Amino acid sequence: MFRLSNLLKSVVSGQEARVLDGSIAIWNFTNRCNLSCMHCYSRADLDSQDTLTTEDIMKTLPKLKANGIKFIIFSGGEPLTRKDLFDIAKRCRELGIITYLSTNGLYVGHKNAQKILDTFNYVGISIDGSEKTHDRFRGLEGSFAMSMDAVRLLNSYGKSKVGIRFTITKETYDDLKFIFELAEKENIPKVYISHLVYSGRGLDNLKMDLTKEQRRVAVEFILDKAFEYHESGRDIEIVTGNMEQDALLFLERFGEKYPDLKETMRKRLREWGGNSAGRKLLNIDSEGNVKPDPFFPMKIGNILHQDFSDIWSNKPTELLQKLREHPRKISGKCSVCDEIDICNGGSRSRAYAIYGDMWAEDPSCYLTNEEIKGV
Question: DSSP states of 12-24 as a string?
Fold first, then answer.
């Protein structure tokens, strides 16, 4: 993920870089969900049965810690459908692992709000646009109101630990402005904008992805808001996900505003390193399969049949070793890009979905040939 607000603030103010000393695991603890979202990469539904037992999970957590996993994002399906979720998060805390909860918010209420805030370091609630757009996209009338009730309830405790997550597609493109207006109106401290990756229902609905022209307009708008918030002192953090090329457009814009700091920012972005699937990011799905990221078309192991240390560190597959090369050896426009060490070639999942080639260029890259020849 690209923490553009944090980068902007830290470089302009001369602060040290916010470096992830370790890796992030996105763990789909369940494939059970009370919604049926159009873009869901796990095709979750309410009839799904949990495969992983509490014992399976608890046995694996210390191994994650031993292999440098510092963050676990609790995902699903809807993670709050698991009755043992708080026990799992408590064990993470005992091990010193930071926990994030990714939820649709429908199971958040007065009875568990305090417990959620006490348990998780951060909570991200999915909002897909205005009420009409969100309810259509999520497949349930009234879901927008329920999700926003959860956002307001959790933020009413004054801990600034709750943000909103938005996936931008053709269906939600016109609601991008609304999302920022909502964050401003409701004083929501963080907005996470995710680009679509072709996996799960997202692959079934490939036609709903943005054109490159739309994507560029959207990213320009997001950058406008980031600079606006920074310059006005508005405390809303913006993060984008699954489109590391955003960093190059950001660098170009940053250089126009702060020419004396452009090379400092370039250095920061190279240290960040772009797409980190298989390197500083992994996914464990609801079946125990380990993948380089949640959207990845190939598995690198399974915690029910293999020791996690062997999967991640001791016996990494050839695929995992190639993903860990930096910058990666990518064909197409990436092969002549002067800035590939910043974005690292973007999404391998999108490349495979469109070209059938894991090492082809990211088909969603919207940068021009001029821009990739030195920002």
Answer: HHTPPP----SEE
pLDDT by residue (tens digit) across 243-302? 999 999 999 999 999 999 999 999 999 999 999 999 999 999 999 999 999 999 899 999
**pLDDT per residue as tens digits for the range 73-87:** 999 889 999 999 999
Number of Cβ atoms within 10 Å of the Cβ of 370:
8
Work out the burial of residue 157: count CB atoms within 10 Å of its CB; fewer than 13 is exposed, 13-18 middle, 19 or more buried: middle
Which pLDDT belongs to residue 205?
A: 59
Three-class SS state of 154: helix
Helix (H) or strand (E) segment spanning residue 229: helix 212-232
Taking the C-alpha atoms of residue 215 and residue 208, their distance in angstroms, rounded to an integer, is 12
Query: Which residues 6+ apart lie within 8 Å of 291 measured at CB?
Result: 282, 283, 284, 285, 298, 299, 300
Calculate the alpha carbon distances from 340 to 33, 65, 110, 335, 346 in Å.
38, 30, 47, 8, 9
Angle at 287 between CA 207 and CA 29, to 5 degrees: 85
- What is the C-alpha to C-alpha distance for residues 238 and 180, in angstroms, rounded to an integer? 10
> For residue 42, what pLDDT band results from cuts at 50, 70 and 90?
very low
Does position 103 have pLDDT exceeding 90, yes or no? yes
Continuous H helices in 40-198: 54-66, 85-95, 113-119, 131-138, 143-155, 176-186
- Provide the pairing of β-strand 162-168 with 190-195: parallel
* More reliable by pLDDT, 370 or 221: 221
Q: Partners of 195 in the beta sheet?
A: 168
Structure tokens at 222: 């997001």
Residues 6+ apart with CB under 8 A from 92: 61, 72, 98, 99
> Is residue 39 over pLDDT 70?
no
